Amino acid sequence: MPDVTLTTLQSLKQNGEKIAMLTCYDATYAHAACQAGVDVLLVGDSLGMVLQGHDSTLPVSVEEMAYHTACVKRGNQGALIVTDLPFMAYATTEQALHNSAKLMQAGAHMVKLEGAGWLAEPIHLLAERGVPVCAHLGLTPQAVNILGGYKVQGRQEAQARQMRADAMALEQAGAAMLLLECVPSELAAEITQAVKIPVIGIGAGSATDGQVLVQHDMLGLSLSGRAPKFVRNFMEGQSSIQGAFSAYVQAVKDGSFPAAEHGFSA
Ligand code: KIV
Q: Which positions are annotated as binding Mg(2+) (predicted)?
């Protein structure tokens, strides 16, 4: 068992203490992130973009996610490991069960699924069978071709209403955690208040129970040379990656990251 469990995350939420989550893809960085006090390591399918150089997360396979999960597990020192089920790996409930088993056996403690209300069924079945699930709402990068780009979600009232309802339905179905990506800060705050499970944000303002960033973004590394608005470069003022990770954890824990300028309005 990791030192950080679902119970730890629940108590952090209840006590109003922020959760620091960071993407991670290998053993050495997992070790460094744990030394810095990161609570949750996310083996994100963002690895398709930042490690493999694709222009989306769609080409990533379950085998690649399992490989990187096993690498992260070897360097982990007590953090909770969450791994993304990649594009089309949970298109049917059978696939969701089969592929989640592969990721859990590789070392994940929780899997993350992108979607909306339709995730209720796979979440319910996975939770019943011992697999904790994080539901990813808002900007869901695997659906970039439907969304028409990497855009803020939930700005229109009907969309916002639907996202609130989805969040509550997925908690009801058994989701252990929610992740909100690129959602107006006010809507993210309302959802965080409305559910009992921890809510992690990325581009979702400061009121969520925790924050996540893609490791390469927060280290100031990018293939395009352009960082998204919600990113802060934590290498600034630091002389080492270890220092940047520690500065990130401290800023999340003391609430100084994200600042208002990192969020989106409705
Ligand atoms: O794949 C990933 O890294 C993610 C984050 C953007 C939250 O899902």
A: 45, 84, 114
